[in-house]
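Backbone Fold Data
Goal — fold tokens
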Amino acid sequence: MSRISVQLYSVRAELAKDFKGVIEKIASFGYDGVEFAGGPPGLSFNQCAEIVRKAGLKVSSAHMPLPLGPNKNLIMDNIKLLGCEYIVSGKGQADYKTADMIKKNCDEFNAAAAEAKKSGLKLALHNHWWEFEDIDGVPVYKTMLKHLSSDVLFEVDTYWVKVGGKDPVSVLKEIGNRAPLFHIKDGSGVKGDFNMKAAGKGVMDFKPIFNEAKNVEWLICELDACATDMLEAVKESFDYISRNK
């Protein structure tokens, strides 16, 4: 059974004011874990890990730079301090303009996954909508699947798949067991609209997505921004996911 986490980027403003209090509130909602987004505000990774642990939560995964170059060991050490195994990363829209750029990115991802594997960690790629646009008549993600090593896993953001014009369930079937993490978010379905809604209150049809999630480790709620109270939307999202998964 998949566990439920929340991407802490969703509550970044609240965390900046009271990290411990917000983590405890997330735990009170019923979440099993949290997903980090880079470094925490004003606290060491060690301190954060202790606060999360004392709240009874796990760290499902963490969004970090690719573990390459001079900082690769620091990045992987921080992941280990948080007590998780998944490094999640990706690229911006400008990095996918040509087929050659896509292949170059894949080489980078393959190298990063190899470094992670040496340290007992796993690399997962997080998508936005641009991985589902066509370059030279071929969807970016299809070119990526041809060039990525089997060590590269995926954190499929099901909402951005839909915004990119593809059917999330078809994409999940295509990726298969290489996606241990799903991002669950909802909204208008319009490109460039980052104002999300609590899960179940937007355009997403989650029932078939949850049917594909039987062997997924983590369902991770995320709201990039929200027109209503963010913590309330995070709670409503947990309630919806836990009822329907």
Observations:
- The CA atoms of residues 99 and 136 lie 7 Å apart.
- DSSP finds ten helices and twelve strands in the chain.
